[in-house]
Amino acid sequence: MLIPEIEKKISAEIKQLQEKLLGEQMLYISKNSKFYQKVFEQNGINPAEIKTLEDLQRIPVTTKDDLQQYNDDFICVAKNKIIDYVTTSGTLGDPVTFALTEKDLERLAYNEAISFVCAGGSENEVYQLMTTIDRRFMAGLAYFLGARKLGAGIIRVGAGMPELQWDTIKKMSPTALITVPSFILKLIDFAEKNNIDYRNTSIKKAICIGEPIRNSDFTLNTLGEKIKEKWNIELLSTYASTEMATAFTECEAGRGGHHHPELIIVEFLDDDDKQVKADEAGEVTITTLGVEGMPLLRFKTGDICFHHTEKCECGRNTMRLGPVVGRKKQMIKYKGTTLYPPALYDILNNIEQIENYVVEVFTNEIGTDEILIHVTSKEKTDSVIKIITDHFRAKVRVTPTIKFVSAAEINVMQNPEMSRKPVKFIDKRE
Fold first, then answer.
1. Which of 121, 189, 321, 356 could pair with 248 in a Cys bridge, judged by C-beta atoms 3.0 to 4.6 Å apart?
2. Residue 181's closest CA among 160, 206, 200?
3. Which residue has the higher pLDDT, 287 or 420?
4. What three-state secondary structure class fits 289?
5. What is the mean pLDDT of residues 278-292?
6. Non-local CB neighbours of 215 within 8 Å, separated by 6+ positions
7. Mean pLDDT computed over every residue of the chain
8. Are 48 and 26 within 8 A, CB to CB?
9. Which domain holds residue 30?
10. What are the tens digits of pLDDT across the range 263-279?
11. If we measure between CA atoms, which residue out of 328, 323, 288 comes closest to residue 92?
12. Based on the domain organization, do 171 and 143 belong to the same domain?
């Protein structure tokens, strides 16, 4: 499978294709979506007049609150057309159900297949899937379908279980991991404690999901550096969400996740729903193309990113998405400083005395944000607390409260019942 031709076209040709697909999606939505029929009526919008990407900006944005309040009104097909049901993770609110048709599953497979190709994959790859494919989780299903479409092998091990992961690597010789990058450090730790020669295995790369491994300038962040220092495998990021049913995956140049323009329209908006300038971070806002079950128009994802439009050395001419700076609803205002969880993670990952952590944010007695960081450490001393607070003071000029907890307590906090991925951030704000 080669690079889709549209991804090598000039921007004018990409825009032309997107506007053709947008017209088709608008016609479909106007006939089948109760939610958007109401939006069009209330705002005096004639869907037939939405023909260009600029016209799209006349439509009000869709929010996560809309999805939670009017979930069923977004469904555009009869129940007997729905093949699969998935739900969002509910990280920033109640989970939302998405209905997928046969066409949607085929689109999902195509998306992930070309994303694997973007990351240097081929039919010769064997992927070890270290995330769940059950619990109504779209990501695991997408990886499985994409590998099948690509003609590659995939081994469905699931999350956790370092011993089983290494046993699988030894017996089945996969070439690539699909995993949360912090779990790679746990794999390395298990290997070192059990005399496993992890540097001499079949693994050549890792497709990293759920956590950033790069800074905004595309250099490796602390987590990425820690992995590379121990295990010199190729690290490639991928960013996606259930709502967009599309992935932005790095190529081997490692300069951002590539946009698939045949699948999705992307805008970057400020708090007033206006386009940000080219050098500013904005909220990723998406319009899905070719989705049948639950298409979305101008959906604000809550993720804040930079984007890049210069041509990539891989030959693709599409926009590239930088690492997620943070989630809008997770923004913390602490002692006059604006922070996002990834900035805190990067500091904590760089402190060798810390073995594991969870960041908790709550509202204090005067109504402002307070940060409590639960950490596990072999040394539970005032000197360790000073090291941690000094790092925070140097990097972000403020110092959160530090609390030592046991490994068992951290494990419970990170893996609540029904969670499909490890939790590092707990938001208890009112």
1. 321
2. 206
3. 287
4. coil
5. 94
6. 221, 323, 346
7. 91
8. yes
9. 1-326
10. 999 999 998 999 999 88
11. 328
12. yes
287 alpha carbon, distance to own chain's centre: 17
pLDDT at 89 (0 to 100): 63
Best CA proximity match to 345, nearest among 364, 322, 373: 373
**Residue after which a domain boundary falls, among 292, 326, 360:** 326
DSSP β-bridge partners for residue 152:
none
Tell whether 206 and 226 lie within a shared domain: yes
Of residues 173 and 420, which shows the higher confidence score?
Answer: 173
Q: Are both 317 and 373 inside the same structural domain? A: no
Please give the full DSSP string across 304-371, using - where no structure is assigned: EE-EE-SPPTTS--S-EEPPP-EEGGG-EEETTEEE-HHHHHHHHHT-TT--EEEEEEEE-TTSSEEE
Assign residue 38 the CATH number of its domain. 3.40.50.12780
Work out the end-to-end distance of the chain between its first and last CA atoms, rounded to an integer number of angstroms. 49
* Same domain, residue pair 293 and 423: no
* Domain end position, chosen among 326, 360, 393: 326
Q: Answer yes or no: do 149 and 288 share one domain.
A: yes
Q: What single-letter amino acid sits at 356?
A: N
Beta strand spans in 72-133 (E): 82-87, 97-101, 126-129
pLDDT at 92 over 60: no
- Convert the pLDDT of each residue in 27-86 to its tens digit: 999 999 999 999 999 999 999 999 999 999 999 999 989 998 999 999 999 999 999 999
Q: Is 64 helix (H, G, I), strand (E, B) or coil?
A: helix
Quickly tell me which residue has 């921007």 as its tokens.
11
**Which comes out higher in pLDDT, residue 312 or 337?**
312
307 lies in the same domain as 196:
yes
Question: Residue 136 contacts by C-beta under 8 Å, 6 or more apart in sequence?
Answer: 85, 86, 87
